[in-house]
Amino acid sequence: MTRTGTALILGATGGAGYEIARALRARGWQIRALHRRPDAVAALIPDADWVGGDAMVAGDVRMAATNVDLIVHAVNPPGYRNWGQLVLPMIDNTIAAARVNGARIILPGTVYNYGPDAFPLLGEASPQNPTTRKGAIRVELEARLRRASAAGVRALVVRGGDFFGPHMTGNSWFASGLVKPGRPVRSVTYPGRPGVGHAWAYLPDFAEAIACLVDRDADLQPFDTVHFGGHWLADGREIAERTRHVAGVPNAPIRPLPWWLVRVLSPGVRIFRELAEMEYLWKVPVRLDNTKLVRLLGSEPHTPLDVALRATLEGMNCLEAPVPRSQIKDVAAPA
Question: Which whole number is the average pLDDT over 6-25?
Fold first, then answer.
């Protein structure tokens, strides 16, 4: 089969899909993006080939994937809606399209797959015994990729912590929990317990790591998993402290997320029900071991935390009087 150097991005308007498309394009890949209304979003990645279609329609995905070498499966139901009905059929469509075209699938992974027995340090071989519905769906999603690899469909899962970056969507904790998009920072809400560590993945770094791994395809297994360390904060509250500093409001209050209210309202409010299911990930330290990634690449892409936060807040239109760049501190990369 003739290789074309073309990558199909499913979910190109989302945070991960958008950044992965940019990172691949910078390495010379031709980008094709599937969207239900391509004319409305084409300006987002102007040099991409936008095609109309729905990730839930097998024929649309198969047609969009014609002659591609890579399919980035970065599509997720917005606001956690209808995960049980949408997530698995979409990955089945991607697998079928990849099988026809001999393409490798790239899946941005999450820590939802894991239960408390795997914490605090998650390696690629850590047991996946989720205690939540979304976690069970993610485990089955990856299991389908693993089973497909036995039939010749190559897949790579790159797992990171909570995403943040300049092109955010409502599916992220940073954009839907910590700050309010489109408004200057007046306070920061932090969902975790003080003193409990938390891992964050800056999306441009995460995407760069994926693009570098794609370049090392010959070193990957037919089904492979790699963990991205990102920004590990031993006291997770530091993300809130640095956010208010970068926003130029160092004395802005840091408020705890009222989990009790989330639980009370969860039976009748879908988004609260979905958030309540993830509460356990904020009660204990959850860190990703990036030893394998560093072995493959030599190092992990890493933007200093304050620089990453400034770009994120700028992209979300949350800056009014930001800290000058000269005062942005360089935070060391994780070990």
Answer: 96
Residues 115 and 28 in one domain: yes
Pair (75, 93) in one structural domain: yes
Do 82 and 211 lie in one domain? The reply is: yes
Residue 126 CB contacts under 8 Å (≥ 6 apart), including other chains:
114, 118
Residue 315 and residue 167 in contact, taking contact as beta carbons nearer than 8 Å: yes
- Please check whether residue 23 is in contact with residue 210, taking contact to mean a CB–CB distance below 8 angstroms: yes
How far separated are the first and last CA of the chain, in Å rounded? Answer: 41
Q: pTM of the predicted model, to two decimals?
A: 0.93
- Domain with 185, as residue range(s), is 167-198+234-284+303-327
Q: Which residues of 120-153 are buried (b: 16+ CB within 10 A; e: fewer)?
A: eebeeebebebebebbbbbbebbebbeebbeeeb
Rounded CA gap, 134 and 117, in Å?
A: 17
C-beta neighbour count of 236 within 10 angstroms: 23
The answer to whether residues 226 and 293 touch, using CB atoms and an 8 Å cutoff, is yes
How confident is the model over 115-126, as pLDDT tens digits?
A: 999 999 999 999
